[in-house]
Amino acid sequence: MSDVDFYFQDMKYTEILNVVEQYIEQFYGAKEDSTLTFHNFAHTLDVVTHAAKMSHHYGLNDRDTFIVVAAAWFHDTGYYTGEPSGHEQRGADMAAGFLRELGVREELIHEIQKCIMATVMPQKPENLLQQIMCDADLFHFGTEQFSERDMLMHEEVERKMGCKIDSGKWRKATICLLESHFFKTGYGRELLEFGKRKNLERLKRKEERGILMKTQSTNI
Questions:
Q1: CA–CA dist 113, 130 (Å, integer)
Q2: Domains in the chain: how many in total?
Q3: What confidence score (pLDDT) does residue 213 get?
Q4: Residue 23 neighbours by CB under 8 Å, 6+ apart
C-alpha cells in the first residue's frame, strides 16, 4: 500500500469535504467577477445543500455522498477560469488536480468528474449519483425562487455578452428550456415537478399577455 493510500485512509470523507469547502470558499472570495450574478458562491452553496439533502434521502454511504458533494463544490468553478462554454470540463479538471494533492484515489476522482460532466446541457446522467448532481444543479426550476434566479441568469448573460437581451426573447428561451427539462431523480420529480409546472405556466401567461399587448398596439 502506498503512502497516498495510507494518507487517504487517515482522512475521513467528511474531513476531506471540509478541506474542499474551505478551498472553494477561498477560491470564490479571490475571484470576484461582477458579471457572474448567478453562477457564484451563493449558487454553489445552494447546489451543495441540495446535493447533500438528496444524498441523505437516498441513504447514500459515505463514499457516494463524498462523490456527489465534492462534485457540487467544484461544478461551476470553471466559470471563473474561462468562457462559459466548457466550464464543466475546467471544473472537473480543477477538482481532479486539487483532490489528487489530498491523496484521493483516482477511482473516486473519476466518479466526481463524471458527476460534474453530467451537468452539461442537455443533461445525460448515467447513474443515481449523476442524477442527484443534475437535479441539485437545476433545483431552482421547481421552487418559488425560480423567477429571481432566472432574472439573475438573464442579467449574467447580458453582462457576459455586453448587450441587452429583449425580455420577450429571454422568456421564450426559458419556456423552451423548462419544457424540454425533466428532473432525473424520483425525489426531484415528486418534490419539484409541480413547482416547475407552475413556473412554466406563469411564464406562458406573461408571454400571452405580451403577444396580446403587441397585437393591440399594432391595431391602434
A1: 10
A2: 2
A3: 59
A4: 98
31 within 8 A of 71, measured Cβ to Cβ: no
Q: Spell out a b/e string for 8-25, using b for 16 or more CB atoms within 10 Å of the CB, else e.
A: beeeebeebbeebeebbe
Last residue of a domain, one of 137, 171, 202: 137
Rg (CA), the chain: 20
Secondary structure E strands in 147-189: none
The answer to whether 76 and 29 have CB atoms below 8 angstroms apart is no
Q: Are 72 and 44 in contact (CB under 8 A)?
A: yes
The letter for the amino acid at 136 is A
- Distance CA(137)–CA(88), nearest Å, equals 12
Dihedral of CA atoms 124, 129, 131, 136 in degrees, nearest 10, equals: -120
37/134 Cα distance (integer angstroms):
20
Q: What is the CATH number of the domain that holds 72?
A: 1.10.3210.10
Q: Give the whole-angstrom CA distance, residue 178 versus residue 206.
A: 15
pLDDT single digits (tens) 106-118: 999 999 999 999 9
Indicate the pTM of the whole model: 0.90
